[in-house]
Amino acid sequence: MIFRRRSVVDEEQGNARTARQRTGSPHSPGRHRLDVLHEAAEPGRQHLRLPVEDDRTELDLTLTRHEITLVEVTPLTEETPEWWDERRLLGKVPG
Known about the structure:
- The chain has a single domain, classed as Sandwich (Immunoglobulin-like), CATH 2.60.40.
- It has three helices and three strands, in the order βααββα.
- It has helices spanning 16-22, 31-40, 86-89; strands at residues 2-9, 44-50, 68-75.
- The protein has a three-stranded antiparallel β-sheet, with no helix packed on it.
- Helix 1 packs antiparallel against helix 2.
- It starts with a strand and ends in a 6-residue tail after the last helix.
């Protein structure tokens, strides 16, 4: 398996300018608006597990207009014990 992390900056994600415009383009933003702008400046992130077949994996990427994306690919070693049941974590008893 492969772990894929994708960081995206485009017109919506990782774009403090868009957030500033949507908050009324304040000349001197208050503490709350500054927090919003700092949060908006963080890239959007996606995490996936991808299968490996014949020492290859397939990345399917579609970029939006003016998008910049960074893809980090890391080999993954499964460490989950065989007895682990994710449903139990959420209080769902296996039937």
